[in-house]
Amino acid sequence: TIRITDSDHHHHHHPIINRIMSSTVESPELQQYMMKRNQEVEIGKLICQMTRDCWRQCVSSVDRATLGRSENRCMRNCTSRYMNASVFLMDQMSAKGASQ
After folding, report:
1. Which residues, other chains included, contact 90 with Cβ-Cβ below 8 Å and sequence gap of 6+?
2. pLDDT band, residue 95 (cuts 50/70/90)
3. Can you tell me the distance from the alpha carbon of 2 to that of 82, in angstroms, rounded to the nearest whole number?
4. Considering just the CA atoms, what is the radius of gyration of the chain in Å?
5. Which residues 6+ apart lie within 8 Å of 74 measured at CB?
6. Cβ distance 54 to 78 under 8 Å?
7. First vs last Cα of the chain: how many Å apart?
8. What is the rounded distance in angstroms from the CA atom of residue 94 to the CA atom of residue 88?
9. Is residue 69 scored above 70 in pLDDT?
């Protein structure tokens, strides 16, 4: 009988599979796509965090269907700060990416 241990299984791929995997990983199109998808995920996380944090900071109760004037102002200021910070961070990241 032939026994295949875990370590054997992970280290010995078929040569064609190895070639496909290495060419795929090195593909600039794939790298660009993955970078874009990662940015979209990060933006989604930022929006969730912004919504949660600004809501906690600004909204005192949910008895009404609309926000009060001060809550509205607070939400606008809070989201604006988040957006300014995220634009700054994205500019920093793209500048860092361009320099590499």
Report:
1. 39
2. confident
3. 59
4. 24
5. 54, 57, 58
6. yes
7. 51
8. 10
9. yes
